[in-house]
Automatic annotation (TrEMBL):
Protein name: 2TM domain-containing protein
Protein origin, superkingdom: Bacteria
InterPro entries referenced in this protein's UniProt entry, alphabetically: 2TM_dom
Segments forming domain 2TM: 12-64
A family per Pfam: 2TM
Entry keywords, A to Z: Membrane, Transmembrane, Transmembrane helix
Organism whose genome encodes this protein: Niveispirillum lacus
TM helices/strands, residue ranges: 21-38, 44-67
Amino acid sequence: MPLSDKHPTVKRRRSQLLNHFLAFFVFAVIVVPVNFFTTPDHVWFFWPLVGWMGPLALHTAYAMGLFDRRD
């Protein structure tokens, strides 16, 4: 049975996921200008962001309860 939106576990998971998205956004806002100011002829900012998207997708799935055990 799915947990209610008011359940403490759901609230905690959502809060942690929001923090993860916020960290990703802040990192992106920093790394893109660093790339264009240091090496404008070589675009590399995309690769760290792509590397972070995998764990972010897994964290999103976890926060949605896709890895919860069904008894």
